[in-house]
Specification:
Layout lengths: L2 H7 L4 H4 L3 H15 L3 E2 L1 E3 L4 H4 L4 E3 L1 H10 L5 E3 L4 H10 L5 E3 L15 H15 L3 E6 L4 H9 L3 E3 L4 H11 L2 E5 L2 H10 L7 E5 L4 E3 L9 E4 L11 H10 L4 E4 L5 H6 L2 E2 L2 H10 L5 E5 L2 H10 L4 E4 L15 H12 L6 E2 L3 H15 L2
Parallel strand pairs: 1-4, 2-3, 4-5, 6-7, 6-8, 8-11, 9-11, 12-13, 12-14, 14-15
Antiparallel strand pairs: 5-16, 9-10
């Protein structure tokens, strides 16, 4: 099949493009009722409200993949998230279950910043410079191939919620750790464990070189030069501006934000931590949140008794995380009802075996 044929195969049919939001919502409601327990719909926190309203569960990527795996009676997992999340769900679910991503264009720019060819080339350099005592750790926001690479070499996956515990585990296994693909989460987590900034080195996969001088003996953590295109946009200047406007405001940010931003924020934590912190905050409190805009807007609606705003007032929703809409969602459910599911996500068996090892090493801790 040519590239053009593949694109055409997964192009949204005109039928759904011609429907208005009410018609699409009615169709989704109908199909969800008809399919019943045959489908399970996990929805990531960053998804649009028009889609999230139909989710069986909401959560972060790993939380949803685990729930999908636990829901063994569902034949189809319609994952309202992005490609790496659907891959993880396919790895963890049973053989009789099919994972569908309503829009194949839904991806993650961070995950795209580390591909397996770059990693294979880099690993040769790392081995030459640092020897064999390296444990690879990959953030859950990575491709199945990257997870598989880590699993095959005794490494593991991690999330923003358990990054500190997993980095400590990796350091207990070996003298050095490769942390990919998000340099900011790696740096912020390592500092929490007492590792000094000069004990870390950044690898640039595009230039295929280290940034700055490398002290092979002193280096403990090798940071892959990747980042979240949303969280990297938050700055210390924004924190200063918020504090000037409201001296009582509390700033909470995701640890994917740059080091300086995390240091100056009042609180740093995973998406789960951010949600729980705002949920438990007293009425009348004031918050500036440094994370994806769909989630911030949802928290604003949920807590009208609190003053909540985005740390970056000009922030837009993540373009890749924000791909799935009612049109593609309706198409996905319609295709299942019609017996010809579209946009199926399948990880090949060899990749899945080692990727699951990486995931299991994390899940057991």
């Amino acid at each position: 099949m040519s590239i053009l044929d593949q694109v055409n195969e997964h192009t949204l049919p005109q039928k759904y493009q011609n429907m208005n939001d009410t018609e699409l919502a009615n169709l989704v409601t109908l199909r969800k009722h008809q399919l019943g327990d045959r489908i399970y719909i996990p929805g990531h926190h960053y998804q649009k409200d028009e889609v999230i309203q139909f989710a069986n569960d909401t959560g972060d990527s790993l939380q949803l993949a685990r729930k999908a795996a636990q829901n063994t009676q569902a034949e189809f997992i319609v994952f309202c998230g992005v490609h790496f999340m659907a891959e993880t769900a396919d790895i963890l679910t049973a053989d009789h279950q099919t994972v569908i991503l309503p829009d194949l264009r839904a991806g993650c720019s961070m995950a795209d910043m580390a591909n397996i060819h770059q990693l294979n080339q880099a690993w040769t350099v790392f081995s030459d410079v640092f020897g064999d005592a390296i444990t690879p750790l990959t953030y859950i926001n990575s491709t199945a191939a990257i997870k598989s690479f880590c699993g095959q070499r005794g490494g593991a996956t991690l999330t923003s919620s358990n990054a500190k515990a997993m980095l400590q585990w990796a350091l207990d296994q070996n003298e050095k750790v490769l942390f990919l693909p998000d340099q900011h989460l790696g740096r912020n987590t390592a500092v929490e464990l007492g590792i000094q900034l000069d004990e870390m080195v950044v690898w640039d996969p595009i230039q295929h070189c280290f940034e700055g001088e490398v002290d092979a003996e002193r280096t403990k953590v090798i940071l892959w030069k990747g980042h979240c295109s949303v969280h990297e946009k938050f700055t210390t200047a924004q924190i200063h501006a918020m504090k000037q406007q409201d001296p009582h405001i509390q700033v909470i940010v995701h640890p994917e934000c740059p080091y300086e931003v995390v240091r100056q924020a009042d609180i740093s934590g995973s998406t789960k931590t951010i949600i729980e912190t705002i949920d438990q905050a007293p009425a009348g409190s004031s918050w500036a949140i440094g994370t994806e805009m769909n989630l911030v807007n949802r928290l604003m609606k949920r807590h009208p008794d609190k003053t909540i705003r985005s740390l970056n007032p000009y922030m837009c929703p993540c373009l890749t995380m924000n791909r799935i809409d009612l049109q593609h969602f309706a198409w996905a459910l319609d295709s299942i009802a019609g017996g010809e599911p579209v946009n199926v996500i399948q990880v090949d068996q060899e990749t899945a075996i080692y990727a699951k090892q990486a995931l299991d090493r994390m899940l057991k801790r």
